[in-house]
Every structure is written in C-alpha cells, then in structure tokens.
C-alpha cells in the first residue's frame, strides 16, 4: 500500500517541511522581539499600534511588498502568521513555553504540504 506524503506524515505524527519552517520562523521572531537573540535585520517590521481587536497585543506592522523577491523575505512572510497568534502565545515567558504553545496549534492553515 502506497500512501501520499501528507498521509505518511500525519500517520507518523510529523509536520511537513513547510510547517517546520513556519514554526522555526515564529520561534526566531519570538526570540528577536523578546531580546533572546540579536539578529541584525534592518528590515524587521516594527510594532503596529493600530487598535484592531483581532490577534495579539504585540502585532507587527505589515508594510506593502514592492516586488516578488521582497514578498518572500523573512520579515514579510512572518507578519501575518505572527499577528494571528493569540496573546497567551506571544506573551509566554520563555522560548520553551512558546514552542510548546505553537506545537499545540493546528498549522494546516499556514503549512501547506
């Protein structure tokens, strides 16, 4: 019996490569925002101070993408995912707790196989 790769991954309880990359991106974003890691990213988005109610209190500003190349940069691809996380996730006190919380999420919306 031959299973599709997505079926194999779910059968084994594993995430797709895209999903693992998204989780690693979120973890790096958490570390940068909380000063657990210094990364000199000049294009890292600033905090958004809009009063919109959805998402979390540490939203990042989503700037317009000028080219396809810029749309795939780390700073651009992480903003939507980060902004959709709840406060109970982004306000965790440690990297380990943050990773535990994002592992509880259902990532099929963000992680395509």
Features:
mainly alpha, 0% strand
What is the topology?
Elements: H1 5-12, H2 17-33, H3 68-71, H4 74-84, H5 87-90, H6 95-104
Count the domains.
Answer: 1
| Spatial shape | globular
**Rounded radius of gyration (Å):** 15 Å
**Range of helix content:** 40-55%
SS class: mainly alpha
Overall pLDDT level: 76
N-end to C-end Cα span: 20 Å
- Strand residue percentage: under 5%
What does this structure look like?
Helix 2 crosses helix 4 and helix 2 (17-33) packs antiparallel against helix 6. This protein is an all-alpha fold and 113 residues long. The protein is globular and about 50 Å long. The protein has helices at 5-12, 17-33, 68-71, 74-84, 87-90, 95-104. It contains 6 helices and no strands. The protein has one domain.
Q: Quick gist of this model?
A:
By secondary structure, the chain is mainly alpha-helical.
């Amino acid at each position: 019996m031959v299973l599709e790769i997505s079926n194999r991954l779910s059968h084994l309880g594993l995430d797709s490569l895209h999903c693992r990359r998204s989780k690693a991106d979120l973890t790096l974003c958490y570390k940068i925002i909380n000063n657990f890691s210094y990364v000199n990213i000049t294009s890292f988005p600033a905090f958004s101070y809009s009063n919109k109610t959805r998402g979390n209190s540490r939203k990042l500003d989503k700037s317009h993408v000028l080219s396809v190349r810029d749309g795939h940069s780390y700073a651009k691809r992480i903003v939507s995912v980060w902004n959709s996380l709840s406060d109970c996730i982004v306000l965790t006190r440690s990297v380990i707790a943050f990773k535990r919380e994002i592992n509880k999420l259902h990532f099929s919306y963000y992680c395509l196989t």
